[in-house]
Amino acid sequence: NTRHGTILTLEDINVSFDGFKALTDLTLYIGVGELRCIIGPNGAGKTTLMDVITGKTRPNSGVAFFGETFDLTQMSEVEIAQAGIGRKFQKPTVFEALSVFENLELAQKTDKSVWASLRARLSGEQRDRIDEVLATIRLDGSRQRPAGLLSHGQKQFLEIGMLLVQDPQLLLLDEPVAGMTDAETEFTAELFKSLARKHSLMVVEHDMGFVGSIADHVTVLHQGRVLAEGSLDAVQANEKVIEVYLGR
Ligand code: ADP
């Protein structure tokens, strides 16, 4: 019972940890090419939601489909990543001793060991894709630079690039602008809006200014449930949202 034009279908998802309900009857649909923001106070269930989508946590019940064919509840984390769901955690985890280019090269060849990957020749097509991604994340001038010498924001962009070279259909991003300068945050907004044409994005973010600058559609989680959903203006005007989240 997935919907046409929907990249992600979650219906009546329940997750319990030792009797504690982290997600309750959660239903959420993400459209192809959509840029969705997920907001909510600490403990709302945002991380658990991402864990369910990536196969790290199995729901106790509910439906979870990627596209129309991939039943996420029956797949391993590796299978889900290979099917086209890329996740970026909050802290960057680039290989600091390797160059920017090598980091992208490794990410593209995840089926090999680190050293086998670096020795293997890239095809022209792979090299072109890396060049394209380098331009997208504005690191084409730093391709030979050790990743450890990049700024915090640039490391975040590199890690997004490491997902992009794998051509994921759905990108999950956890607090992408935390710790970024204003200029980096602005570039991230631009980047996400441009990526949303080709990919679908789910962004967990606390920075409401940033959310306002990117999202067509916002889902507010609270105590493991969807509290409200709609445009940022609509959810910010929602009484329940003001009470639990915004009206501190
Ligand atoms: P958020 O990311 O919105 O801050 P989380 O998804 O991390 O929220 O957590 C939702 C709730 O589930 C929290 O109360 C948290 O303590 C609880 N929780 C998350 N993971 C586990 C776990 N592995 N075992 C027990 N409780 C957990």
Can you characterise this structure?
There is one protein chain. With 248 residues, this protein is of the alpha/beta class. It has a single domain, classed as Rossmann fold, CATH 3.40.50.300. It has ten helices and ten strands. The strands form two sheets. The protein has a six-stranded mixed beta sheet, sandwiched between helices. Strands 2-1-4-5 form a four-stranded antiparallel beta sheet, with helices on one face. A hairpin with a 2-residue loop joins strand 1 and strand 2. Helix 3 (100-108) packs parallel to helix 6. The protein is globular and about 55 Å long.
Rg for CA atoms = 18 Å
* Average residue pLDDT: 91
CATH superfamily: P-loop containing nucleotide triphosphate hydrolases
List cofactors, ions and other ligands: adenosine-5'-diphosphate
Keywords: ATP-binding, Nucleotide-binding, Transport
InterPro entries: ABC_AA/LPS_Transport, ABC_transporter-like_ATP-bd, ABC_transptr_urea_ATP-bd_UrtD, BCA_ABC_TP_C, P-loop_NTPase
Pfam family, one: BCA_ABC_TP_C
Organism: Phytopseudomonas argentinensis
Q: What would a concise description of this structure say?
A:
The chain is α/β, with parallel strands linked by helices and 248 residues long. It contains ten helices and ten strands.
Which tags fit this structure?
single chain; 248 residues; alpha/beta; Rossmann fold; six-stranded mixed β-sheet; four-stranded antiparallel β-sheet; 10 helices; 25% strand; binds adenosine-5'-diphosphate; BCA_ABC_TP_C; ATP hydrolysis activity; ATP-binding; Urea transport system ATP-binding protein; ABC_transporter-like_ATP-bd
